[in-house]
Amino acid sequence: MRHPNGYGTVAKLSGNRRNPFVVRKTQGWNAKGHPVYTVIGYYPTREAGLIALAQYNKDPWDIDREKTTLAELFRLWSEKKAPKLGACNRQSLKGAFNHCASLSGMKYKEIKAFHMQDVIDGCGYGYSTQGAIKNLFGHLDRFALELDIINRCYSDLITSAPVPETSKQPFTDEEVDRLWQIQDDEWVDSVLVFLYTGFRISELLDLRTANVDMDAGTIKGGTKTRAGKDRLVPIHSLIAPFIRKRFSIGGEYLFNRGGKKMHNIQYYAIWNAIMDKVGMSHTPHDCRHTFRSRLDSAGANKVCIDLIMGHKSAGVGERVYTHKTVQDLKNAVELVTR
What we know:
mainly alpha, DNA polymerase, domain 1, three-stranded antiparallel β-sheet, 44% helix, 11% strand
């Protein structure tokens, strides 16, 4: 009798073995198109394997707690717990798992605090990545407790680099001009788009080409707050050629890599390379501060600034009774010059 898709299989291994029948499920495919299996267990007879496979499909969380590895626990957690998290958080934790390769085959119950700390200390990245790894071990520990794999959370004992106490430093006019001088270099257009839209990094990378209206000269985008979500941001005339070029390439996302959505970690590598090239020390969020500061210095209407930035105006009268047209927003944006 043929099993339904995704049910799993029982296969006999070669050689003289005490438990020659392996019970496994296909979890995906590698770059060569070969299946990637998750092994449920090894059994002396096919019948015993079929019984185990049926039990597993009835309760896939009834696992061999003694043998569950970090990689197996992460896979189970990805199926059971990760879907309840936000997309950005899931992606961050998935990236953090890539730094745990040295422990992936180790039984999770044998992983102690010093193992986790070694991964954090040896990842070669700063506070953001270290914090993501620490966060991942916290999630996995709590899930392992739920499954009775461990009886204490060693992740409570590990540390990561603290978030540096820094104040945002807007770009100077000279720095902005330096970027314009190399505007044709790869990905420099993204920095200039940041500087003339005020988008956050996640907002820029989430921009879909379907939300770009070249005829109207606007972009609908933004996340995080009620005031900032799906706001209308005018396309400044200075960056219109960049947007038009990206738009003409096509693809679901305006700023993509190989046609696929780019994630924050990937973009930071690009950003850091550009900053090194021009000898600057800024973050993408500094562009947001720069844009608001330049709008304010140029005398733009405060309500227009709040609407463009996705901020909630302080005064109730401003929020309720002041209505700005798209042209008002465009006029405000154009006050910012090169």
